[in-house]
Amino acid sequence: MSETTDQKKPPLNGRRALPSNNSNDEENEVPEVEAFGLIPRGFNPKDYLRVVDIHMFKDINEQQHHTDKYYNPKLIVRRGQSFQIQVDFNRPYNPQTDQFWLEYLIGRYPQQNKGTYIPILVRDVLKPGEWGAKITHKENNSIRLSIMSSATCIVGKFRLYVAVLTPFGILRTHRNSATDTYILFNPWCQQDAVYLDDEKEREEYVLNDVGIVFHGNINDIKLRSWSYGQFEENILDACLFLMDKAELELSGRGNPIKICRVASAVINSRDDNGVIAGSWDNTYTNGVPPSAWTGSVDILLEYYSSKKPVRYGQCWVFAGVFNTFLRCLGIPARLITNYSSAHDNNANLQLDFFLDDEGKVDTTTTKDSVWNYHCWNEAWMTRPDLPVGFGGWQAVDGTPQETSDGMYRCGPASVQAIKHGHVCFQFDAPFVYAEVNSDIVYLKRAKNGTQVIENIDTSHVGQLIVTKEVGRDGMMEITEEYKFQEGSEEERLALETAVMYGVKKQTTQDTSYQPQTDIDMEFQVQKAVLGSDFKVTITFRNKSRNTYTATTYLSGNIVFYTGVTKNEFKKHTFSAKLEPYSSSAFDVVIKSSEYLSDLLDQASFHFFVTARINETGKILATQKATVLEIPALRIKTQGAMVAGKEMSVTVEFTNPLKQTLENVTLRLEGPGVLRTMKKEFRQIPMNSTLIWEVKCIPNRPGLRKLIASLNCDALRHVYGELNIQIQKP
């Protein structure tokens, strides 16, 4: 044997006869003539029934299988539902004397018991949800077959062969990639693990190729569109490649639980060179800033061709790409946002904020953080691995935060289990439970080194959890799917259950903690446009008959949306006199000159207010994030909008800052209308308007969405969008 062929043999391991079969891309060679023994000299394969052609009926099959939107030349069907093909022979088929069958193969080492080699004999009747074929029509030399796939079969790209039995051996069709068939999950099929019974929800969670990302913060919710683009050219192949990259055994690819688990690891580049490299430090050298992406298609296609992590992403980018992957394979999925999301480093349901002597947060000792918002995904499926009642929406998260079983991944965790505190059920339920349920504890170190609790805030974290409405662009609140009403009996019970199942909860039965109950303190931040001054109003309500004085400290910090501080730009201390039974308000003005030079991507501030009541020594503490209003892009269209005809789109933007914007990048995309286009502008002087005109030819009629973003170092997260109706030609 020559050296070269020897090297191609994969290394065997001692425990299995065949190497692992974990690539959908690799193939084995299938013999066209498989002899039973010695072949007699007069044998001529042409004397027997022979396949001349196979017709895949792509159009009619794909309409019935809800796969007609995929931009792909090969047949795409969903499992557990029948589809039609036609086989043309060299002569009429005679069931008495001729015998043939179909073979579907996937991967390099097809085996029948692993579901990677599927022989299908022709039967009289099809059983729902099981592999089978029956003849529905015979005419001249052709037969038409109805083929049923199993409702649990592997999801991926199969190769099709037709085999004919002769007395001396099996004759097969030659390898023909035109008959390759993709089989996907089927939310329309009751036996499928991802079955979803509501047609409007299936249209949203499987077939909608654009969505909404909610960001900003709890007091100022912002939204932007995201193009999922799951039907665009090469995206399905890119998604199948992700499973190859994750080395998921082909036999496990019919199981949505396994697929979600490995995908949540491969979406991020930590520990496996996955799709997206995260960056949260405001420096995006040699890459695209996370806020510049308008959708998933560019990211997936770049990864599919380069096989290297795409730079850069933050939580909504990981979640947007994950959503594309899930919908593309046919798993119902939605992107959700949790406002005031806890990142609890030691999962003890308690975020520890250490205060220094002045009453401000000590950033060196405080390791936990509250993200203004955090996006993850939910995927819909049954959970046969858990007790009854924990199927339905499962939380999955591709953003690398903490390791799970040694890798950066999270989920699938049953949302129902999280709500009831049953966090013992796999995977990563305690982490998600902490993200939506932690308490914020303000601690101070006493002179003798002990920690004294100064204040506890039980309602700040996980105040609002939202997703896009079904069929509309509005916001749907789903907080009660994750937690009971704050302070209710059920909520206490769920917490006790979570603690019983091993979520660490430090007891605060600390005798030294007795809060000041007769004074309330809160503050409001005025809504402000980027580049303008605004004010913070601090209000005290004294509910007692005593007169108090409060030494009050306001700290204004520029933060990443993850709640991590970049720097403190405002310090203000004042003394407040609190009269009995009355309220007093104090204004602090924030000037644009104080914050503009240090502003980060998301124009995000975080204010801490701590007040020491001088008469009692007790501390009141509260915190709030706020986001500036960022101007939007305007998108307009001109002329008729008809599929297959050229149309014109313009994007406009006026610079609101008191400075010139430099090295500005614009992006524009719209699934079914135009592929992503980019344009660079060297400068936009202050108050001047930029206009960019683009010509395109839409290829799909119907309601479509155009999405644009603008990015430069001084200004990020500038978006615009427009709904347009493309007419049929």
Number of domains: 4
User: CATH fold name of the largest domain, please?
Assistant: Coagulation Factor XIII, Chain A, domain 2
Derived from helix and strand composition plus strand pairing, the structural class reads mainly beta
CA-atom Rg in angstroms: 31 Å
Counting H and I runs of at least 4 residues, what is the number of helices?
12
Number of strands: 40
Helical content (DSSP H or I, runs of 4+) = 10-25%
Kindly report the name of the CATH homologous superfamily of the largest domain: Transglutaminase-like
CATH class of the largest domain: Alpha Beta
Biggest sheet: strands, sense, closure? Answer: 7 strands, mixed
List keywords for this structure.
single chain; 729 residues; mainly beta; Coagulation Factor XIII, Chain A, domain 2; Immunoglobulin-like; 4 domains; 7-stranded mixed β-sheet; 6-stranded antiparallel β-sheet; 12 helices; 40 strands; acyltransferase; Transglutaminase-like; Coagulation factor XIII A chain; protein-glutamine gamma-glutamyltransferase activity
